[in-house]
Amino acid sequence: MDQRPNSGEHADIRLWLRLLYCASHIETALQSRLTAEFGMSLARFDLLSQLERAPGGLTMTELSRQMMVSNGATTSLVDRLAEDGLLERTAHPSDRRTTIISLTPLGRERFLEIAREHESWVIGLFEGLSGEAKAELLSGLGALKQHLSS
Amino acid sequence: MDQRPNSGEHADIRLWLRLLYCASHIETALQSRLTAEFGMSLARFDLLSQLERAPGGLTMTELSRQMMVSNGATTSLVDRLAEDGLLERTAHPSDRRTTIISLTPLGRERFLEIAREHESWVIGLFEGLSGEAKAELLSGLGALKQHLSS
Questions:
Q1: What are the E-state strand segments in chain A?
Q2: Strands B58-59 and A87-91, bridge-based pairing
Q3: Could you tell me which of A2, A109, A101 has the C-alpha nearest to residue A60?
Q4: I need a labelling partner for B21 at 20 to 30 A (CA). Which of A85, A136, A149, B97 fits?
Q5: Helix/strand/coil for A135
Q6: Which long-range contacts (CB under 8 A, 24 or more apart) does B28-35 make?
Q7: How far apart are CA A49 and CA A41, in angstroms?
Q8: Which band of pLDDT confidence, cut at 50, 70 and 90, is reported for residue B23?
Q9: Which residues pair with A103 in a beta bridge?
Q10: Per-residue DSSP letters for A62-96?
């Protein structure tokens, strides 16, 4: 949108629109390929990814907080992935009212298979971007992430 | 996620996860405030914003292509905003089979009212981020945007 005349636009709005454009563009590209090649939504992949990073499993609260894509409520995603045998629910060892969600061996295998492809798509999307631009982005996004989390 | 051990993660994945984290975090914050203060979704606000930038109106194809947030099909968003009197559909002057969608005066007034608040929220979210970090981000995202659009 920065190619259009918008001299009245605040610099922070310009920054936010660029950030949103880039994230949406990449998200849409990854979503299309996940659907076409694995019949999987980005939300499901994100959920499996969060569980793979937490070998001891996560409670529903932890899982919801860590999800990065928002489409689809976490509970219904968990229900469908459990039906497919990719994750399981067990009672928390010290609090039986709390449920721990973790990957099944099949879920881990399936996630790793898709993650390899997903990684190659991400590398392809950033290919051709200069090392300098990547370094600027990594540094600037690191500062923004820290700022937003504080 | 870069605070967790993930030494096996490719640098481009790390970059993409930072980008996704920042965009999702800001999007969620803006969505909450839009809902709380104006009862409006980010998708509706985005749609009004695209129309405000196109004084002659847009066709449905142009509008769908320019939408940056993906939740909600554009057609149903247009239907609901038309019911609320915020936009109108007219026949294209040289091709009556094509519909042009544009803001009504009420739609423009409502958009500008919300946009002022939205701008102040965005400024608040980036507040405290150093000028250097903002410059890095603007430059890095500019390069990425150009790369993704090419």
A1: 58-59, 87-91, 99-103
A2: unpaired
A3: A101
A4: A85
A5: helix
A6: B28/A70, B29/B121, B29/B125, B30/B118, B30/B121, B30/B122, B30/B125, B33/B117, B33/B121, B34/B114, B34/B118
A7: 12
A8: very high
A9: A87
A10: HHHHH----SS-HHHHHHHHHHTTSEEEEE-SS-T
Predicted confidence band of residue B92 (pLDDT cuts 50, 70, 90): confident
Contacts of A69 in chain B (CB under 8 A): 20, 24
ipTM: 0.86
Closest CA to B26 of A96, A147, A113: A147
Angle between helices B131-149 and A105-126 (to 10 degrees): 90
A15/B138 Cβ within 8 A:
yes
What is the Cα–Cα distance from B70 to A27, expressed in whole angstroms? 10
Tokens of B131: 């000028």
CB nearest A140 (choices: B68, B125, B136): B136
**Domain range annotation of chain B:** 1-39, 40-120
Q: Cα B130 to chain center, whole Å?
A: 24
The whole-model pTM stands at 0.85
Model confidence band, residue B112 (pLDDT cutoffs 50, 70, 90): very high
User: Which CATH number is A11-124 given?
Assistant: 1.10.10.10
Distance CA B126, CA A95 (A): 40
**Taking the domain B40-120, which CATH number applies?**
1.10.10.10
Token pair 């149903």: residue: B76
Of residues B53, B142, B144, nearest to A4 (C-beta): B53
